[in-house]
Amino acid sequence: MDVKFMRAALSEAQKAEKLGETPVGAVIVQNGRVIARGYNKREIKKNALMHAEIIAIDKACRKLGGWRLPECDIYVTLEPCPMCTGAIIQARINNVYFGAYDKKSGCLGSVCDLSEILPHKISFCGGIMQEECESIIKKFFKKLRKREK
Hints:
By secondary structure, the chain is an alpha/beta fold. It is built from five helices and five strands, in the order H-E-E-H-H-E-H-E-E-H.
């Protein structure tokens, strides 16, 4: 685990925030090098699949030329949801490092742990730069609630 990669994921989250998207960012790392980046684009793409992790996985698969992502780790600012956790497992990513826990839909320990029931086993570690990762999301939703009033 390397904090510089979580900082890179936070940088991606900031891109999402500037576009009015929920500020979640992800980077995929292979052999100590970022090979793919992603941030949420659900609103601008009008597509439920456009989560940061899915975008990063798609880019990494294209770069490496296959659906398996050997010797890869993913850093994401928010605990992955069921869809993203499934995609991470299907892509055979080794390790997941995330910042903020997601008590509503996190599937690496908060709501459930999909890594225990699906066949490919992954390792994960949450709470990395947790305050920074939580802060960007909390500020985003606070602004959003103010606009809705």
